[in-house]
Amino acid sequence: DAFRAFHLNPSFVQKFLKPLLIGELAPGEPSQDRGKNPQLVDDFRALRKTAEDMNLFKADPLFFSLYLGHIIMMEALAWLLVSYYGTGWITTFILSCILATSQAQAGWLQHDFGHLSVFKKSIWNHIVHKFVIGHLKGASANWWNHRHFQHHAKPNIFKKDPDVNMLHIFVLGDSQPVEYGKKKLKYLPYNHQHEYFFLVFPPLLIPVYFQMQIIMTMIRRRFWADLAWAFSYYMRYFIMYIPFYGVLGSLFLLTFVRFLESHWFVWVTQMNHIPMEIDCEKHRDWLSAQLAATCNIEQSFFNDWFTGHLNFQIEHHLFPMMPRHNYCKIAPLVKSLCTKYGVHYEEKSLGKAFIDIVGEKDMVSEQYFEILSLADISVCTVEYSQSKSRERCTVLPVTSSLMRKKPTLFPVNPVFFEYQSGYSPEGPLSLLCSHASRVQTPLSMFQDKRKAERQATHTERFPLHIIRLLVQQLLRGEAVTSQMI
Fold first, then answer.
1. Sign of the Cα pseudo-torsion (69, 264, 138, 250, in order)
2. Residue 430 neighbours by CB under 8 Å, 6+ apart
3. What is the pLDDT of residues 271-307, one digit of tens each?
4. What is the C-alpha separation between 318 and 288, in angstroms, rounded?
């Protein structure tokens, strides 16, 4: 299914693959496909055949012509604005917003050509892709293809999707904060990542990180054609604006435009993936893998234009070569298939999608901090004290790296024992007792099921007397189940 999703003419490509075929696995050999639902796979392939019969993979030339036209019109409008009204602050700000809009929309358009979703022949898609991403945006088509196709093949999979490789700036998903917390990796204060996200990611991704990576990639890998296209963009830009702003002023203007575009790009691209499941490879079928990592945004004319139709992220990931104006036509059929097999199809409003980006980083930062705070305790006992009417539960380290300094009492925050409705209370309790004497509870039990967490709406607390009874039960080496609550 992945192979079919990325090739306009699979039979032609398979001719090149035939000499590379070593052999087929015997029926009894281990295979990553054994756990997949064959009926779901067959039904998805039938859905793709239905889409082909409905001509949903056929592009509308008028749609893409008008789209390219409105980008060129904004470029011309920006130049006319500064030509007639000068370089005042207000004019420059309006000019910057227009240029940032044209850059963002050119980004969505190059995405269409990069996915071979406009022309019937791959060669024409590649040529126009180089023009749009190179001459209109100053970027590299080969750099984009290399990153983006990896993302589509394995979305939200650590070490396979470059879009979730955050270079130790952020920790994501369920497993990464546990790994970083246990190893005490703290390149940055991850417990505050939901706060410094606004200062690091949206403003710096395009003007700093992407620009440096694109230039270095084109030079190191000798993408000379891409470099020539990118050079044509900068030459055109400076010819247009140096007469008004000078060399330094034009550089500042370009940086500010990239700054504005970066905010637009980050919020749109992150809202479909970051709040979803981010984990290691699970070898799912194509439909299940894409649905676990993507979500949709409600359709409207503005949302379609603002996101480049990436509000239909699910349909785009299932059918990357489908022209975007047909996503709305295939969406009801995808929903029906997901309902049939109980695959979660998530759709939300644009505002909620933006909020969920920061909310996800907040939840992960709390998880990382709680793991990190207990990483030093190797063996501990649990003590209880009662002062007046207040009962307190503390964790006393017996042998740990902290003991080399000074024995310390660790008060357990009652909020720490909060759990979402539908959770097994063994989750937070296992974290408390994972280092307790005579109790071997794996720290991995702390990894709560995040899907349930996102859907939970009610928060409860464990009464302290319940905590005491359960901890005593664990210290005696006896099993604890949710029925004891």
1. positive
2. 441, 442, 445, 446
3. 999 888 888 888 899 999 999 999 999 999 999 999 9
4. 10
> Which pTM value belongs to this model?
0.74
The total of other beta-carbon atoms located within 10 Å of residue 394's CB is 15
Beta strand 419-420 pairing with 410-411: unpaired
Stretch 144-150: mean pLDDT, rounded? 94
Beta-bridged to residue 397, according to DSSP, are 380
- The H or E element that residue 460 is part of is strand 459-460
For the chain, what are the domain ranges? 2-9+35-347, 378-484
Strands (E) located in 281-376 = 296-297, 347-348
Kindly give the residue spans of alpha helices, DSSP state H, lying in 59-130. 61-85, 89-114, 122-130
Sequence length of the chain is 485
Sheet strands (E) in 225-338: 296-297
The number of beta carbons lying within 10 Å of the beta carbon of residue 387 is 7
End-to-end CA distance of the chain: 46
Candidates 72, 153, 171; CA nearest to 115 is: 153
Distance CA 48, CA 71 (A): 32
